[in-house]
Amino acid sequence: MKAKKLFLSMLGVLAMATAFTSCSSDDDDDWNDDGSKLVLPKSRAYIMNQGTQSENNSGIEFYAPNHDGEIIDDIFYKQNGARLGDTGQAMIEYEGKVFIAVHGSNYLSRVNAACVEDGRTMFSADPELKGGVRSIAAEDGYIYASFYGGIVAKINASTMKIESKLTNIGKNLENMAVCDDMLYVSNSYEIVDGNFIYLNNVIVIDLNTFKVKESIEVTQNPNQLVEEDDKVFLISWDYSAESYVLQMIDPKNGNKVSRIGYATEMAANDGVVYLLDSRTDYSNWPDVLSTVNTFSSYNVKTGTMNSTSFLKDAPAELLSTSISMISVNPGNGDIYIATTFYNKSNGNVYRFKKDGTFVEKFDCGGQNPKAAVFFN
């Protein structure tokens, strides 16, 4: 675990917020493709490749789920004539637009349905936001962004202007999730005299007032957050445990926290939380000695864990390759699982039907695939 902690803290490749759950666009199929240099099919998927920290190699791949278009390795570059930047951190769809948070370059990009940029907010000029953007979430016309340094910014999704900030509410903030007009924010860690101090709380912000409502005690080093069926699911990167700790927060029961298992990645759709528990040996980094992946699922309505894999005929290599993303297309329930080879080569995406049937495997077009959004 010490080697794993060193790997995550030094490289910064996997120490990042999982994108706020990949989601479909509105049911309207008249996408805004203004300014597009390319003709794209109606059904679209975008895969954000995080790249490797400080190598300025983040990008976005285009994939046609109906196989009526070619895969485009870096559609952001082809459409905009510029690279995405250093360390793509999170990507979400909201109101027919795609919002991308880039941590190292420290900005928020807004692109239309064809990945043509039509808005950008730079954070680097604001001293309070110099820690870098980590996660984004959307609600009622606003994009909420978390930052290292304990800040959450409220950004108008139309104007891309910061309208308000909550400062000093924590230390290094990570993932966020919205549930019942409340924004749940992971307060992960701080560095004191060169030492990592792992924190143990999730901050709850009332979006009606944009004020902190409460702080919830959770397992140390909270990170990933996902909302499903009025519950909030949390993965804490507790290096003292045998794996990352999966918890459920119940807003309707006083934000009661229940520990329900172990998981390193998750995605949710239609009342099910899809889970991966990946046990990887990083002790000889940059070589990965071994990886053992276990897939399971949690039924939110019944409150039961299913230890049987939700994948029926997964390729054998998927059980022993590092995985950096699980996303679900809410339009049809298809499951996308992405593998990473870190800074050595491009990752791969494995697509499965909702029932777990394997569909295909394709190159993700970059390093460290981390998030996906879908236009159905």
UniProtKB/TrEMBL annotation:
The keyword Disulfide bond does not apply. Residues 1-24 form the signal peptide. InterPro entries: Quinoprotein_ADH-like_sf, WD40/YVTN_repeat-like_dom_sf. It comes from the Bacteria. Keywords: Signal. This is Surface layer protein.
